[in-house]
Amino acid sequence: MKKSAGAEKKKSRRSSASVQNVSRDPGSDTPPRKQAAKKDVFQLFAEKVRDHKDLISRWAVLQETRVEYFRGKDFVSFMKNHPELKEILESNRNLEAEDIANILLQKNILVRCDRVVKTVRPGKKKLSTWPAHLEIFPEQVFSENDAFFAWTFVKRRPLWQTLLSFIWPVLTLAICLFPVYPHRCKLLILYCCAGVLLLILSLLLSRATIFGAAWIILGKRFWFFPNILAEEATLRELFRFWPKKDEEERPKWTARLFYAIVAMLVILLLRHHAPDEAARARYQKRMSNIIDDVLEWSPSLALSGMMEKQTVFNATENNNTSNESNVTSQSENVTSADETGSSEESDQYKNDR
């Protein structure tokens, strides 16, 4: 530990001296104002290095902000394999990788970070190679020994992301207009979405089955597509097929036997309570009716249905009105007939007397 601390102090002194030489730059005849107007060569170098595919990097959370970071030893090996990138530094092309990193740190292009979790978690043999949560390291000096460095500048947005930002509103509008599509387009979209959903569910079920079988039988952990459910992963990491190396301890045979019995009981329970053919037929008919209602809906049919309802409602109102008028007239006729009959009976009674 003392040797490593002393080595880092020597590196920091050497880097500070190199930075002073770079800031003075006696060989340059460019005036200070022109140098300020010209873009910093170290910023150009950092952008070029960050966009390079050979520098291994990951994403993590640093003070509630997602940052892209790399390891110190990976940066040193990257610079050894790609010395042509130093040509961007012009007069500083002869600097070592450590000196370049220290200049980037002093220019706040990089920031040294440390892992938040510094203890080995239960069930694992060593710390994570790429931690998901970072914190700022007190001493901003380059080191290769378990040191992480995050980029502080915003990466330039590629062209496909700009095009995608214009496509999203159009796609949202197209989804909202799905009910007015022609019948063939609705069928095509329905089959495509059902196929994608079936593919995702089959993938998740198959990887879970393989993991469970390998864990119970062999005591190994094999997660194919290990990052398929990761919240923070690049597109390249998301579809990585081969699993990572199993760094955790081998499970006990008692735990494997217990989960094997639990799996058998769950399978038997699901088989016992599985629906019969009649229930499956009813469920299929119900779902097909729902899907048919969605596919066969159209504005013309909806408007015609509304007009038919309005016509039926008006006809019903007219019938009710005519019925009420007929009843009223009939009641009036009955009343007048009663009055006439009563008057005739009174006249006859008077004549008899």
Can you describe what's shown?
It is a single chain. This protein is α+β, with helices and mostly antiparallel strands and 353 residues long. Among the domains are: 41-151, Arc Repressor Mutant, subunit A, CATH 1.10.10; 182-269, no CATH class; 275-308. The protein is 60% helix and 7% strand. The protein has 11 helices and 5 strands, in the order αααββααβββαααααα. The protein has helices spanning 2-24, 32-37, 41-51, 72-81, 97-106, 159-176, 183-217, 235-238, 253-272, 277-296, 299-352; strands at residues 58-62, 66-71, 110-115, 133-136, 148-151. The chain has a 5-stranded mixed barrel with strand order 1-2-5-3-4. Helix 1 packs across helix 5 (97-106). It is flat and about 80 Å long. Residues 317-334 have a biased composition (Low complexity). InterPro entries: Sec62. It is found in: Endoplasmic reticulum membrane. Keywords: Endoplasmic reticulum, Membrane, Protein transport, Translocation, Transmembrane, Transmembrane helix, Transport. This is Translocation protein SEC62.
Strand and helix map with partners:
Blueprint: H1 2-24, H2 32-37, H3 41-51, E1 58-62, E2 66-71, H4 72-81, H5 97-106, E3 110-115, E4 133-136, E5 148-151, H6 159-176, H7 183-217, H8 235-238, H9 253-272, H10 277-296, H11 299-352
Parallel strand pairs: 1-4
Antiparallel strand pairs: 1-2, 2-5, 3-4, 3-5
Helix pairs in contact: 1-5
